[in-house]
Design brief:
Number of domains: 2
Shape: elongated
Number of helices: 8
CATH topology of the largest domain: Aspartate Aminotransferase, domain 1
Radius of gyration: 19 Å
Oligomer: single chain
Order of helices and strands: HEHEHEHEHEHHEH
CATH superfamily of the largest domain: Aspartate Aminotransferase, domain 1
Helix content: 25-40%
Structural class: alpha/beta
């Protein structure tokens, strides 16, 4: 049963609010609307990119009926903390995975590639791993003056044969249909700075070296303005 069905089965609909992340996953917010409820955006944790329990607590109102937790980039959200929050406020807590397909046997190789990048990349902020991180995406941060710096960096590494992709170009609270005047500083910062680098299990050591060389050659783009 999908998110819409789970919400409806729980009796959630018109008059209810459901807290969801604004950092990607438009289908989650759409599911809330299809159930007849109103999506309310909570901010994310800057390390996991998943909903921050404290930020969720800050947007709970008397109309809040549920929270949809999204696991991001292969790193699980803190579901225990969110369920504890749900119990205190009487909220349904649902989990949503970015990928519907089961994980392949390439997890060990992706973790190996991630470790290789962790040790060799400079000038970007590498992800903080965990024993449960499967690295569906290897997401770094490109610091600087905002979105133009990250986008310039992405174009430059693509010119060097590295397929760097922006995982979330525009947060949901900034797009038509879901636009909200809310303060989500970590969501905004992540949307401006994050870039996914390749860690596919099929990548060769030479290809991994190309990623490192391309990224590390661009340190000049990363100097912040004062």
């Amino acid at each position: 049963m999908g998110t819409v069905g789970l919400l409806r089965a729980a009796g959630i609909g018109p008059g209810d609010e459901v807290v969801v992340p604004a950092f990607g996953n438009v289908e989650v917010a759409e599911a809330v609307v299809l159930a007849g409820a109103v999506p309310v955006f909570g901010d994310i944790d800057p390390v996991t990119y998943c909903l921050d329990p404290a930020a969720v607590a800050a947007v709970i109102s008397h109309r809040t009926a549920a929270v949809v937790v999204v696991h991001r980039f292969g790193r699980p959200a803190d579901v225990d903390a969110m369920r504890s929050l749900g119990q205190r406020h009487g909220l349904l807590v649902l989990e949503h995975s970015e990928l519907d397909a089961p994980l392949s046997d390439g997890v060990a190789q992706r973790r190996s590639h991630a470790a290789y990048l962790d040790q060799r990349l400079s000038g970007v902020v590498t992800p903080i791993g965990s024993e449960r991180h499967t690295y569906q995406q290897y997401v770094v941060r490109v610091p600087g003056n905002g979105r133009p710096d990250r986008d310039a960096f992405a174009r430059a590494i693509r010119a060097r044969g590295v397929d760097g992709r922006v995982p979330v170009k525009t947060p949901l609270h900034r797009i038509p249909g879901f636009r909200r005047d809310v303060c989500l500083p970590e969501t905004e910062r992540a949307a401006d700075e994050t870039l996914a680098l390749p860690v596919d299990a099929s990548l060769s050591r030479r290809e991994m070296h190309r990623i490192v060389s391309a990224c590390n050659a661009l340190g000049g783009l990363l100097q912040p303005a004062f």
